[in-house]
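Intended use. Records like the one below are meant for learning the mapping from a protein sequence to its folded structure. Do not use them to infer anything beyond what is encoded.
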Amino acid sequence: MKQIVLEIEDSAFEQFMGMIELCPQVSVVSTGDAVNVVSNRDTCMVYAIKTLRENGVFCHGYDYGWIMMAINEGVLDDFDSFKSPQAFIDYLYLIGIDTLPTRFTLFRAYSRALDSFPNWTFVDVNDASETVRRINVVKQFLSAYGKAKRTFCNKNCNN
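Structure written out for the chain above:
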């Protein structure tokens, strides 16, 4: 036996249920309203990524790699490390971020950095300003993420 979870627009629900009645081997186990599973952490991530995009911080697709690397180094307590570039891309897509780099782009960025944040050096650049720019991608991300967290908590926490 197989089980399928579907999301159906409210306007199509009755028609769908009518189609199900035509197939006696199919039974509806349960129905309910969709629940938004995006957490506070995810809301802060979306805000931070969108802020960086709006401010023109991302110059290259691999700039997302610096954020993934910093998270994997533990700069945010809210996240465990991402097991792979694809896991990071999947997470961003799941929370509604589109136009993402490829996993190869992130992997390549990951393989070019040495040391740990904020003391990264990069094997593919000799330009100090590019090194600073890459590190600043993460600093600006952390600033935007922290702002979102403070704003969200001020509106929604009872502390």
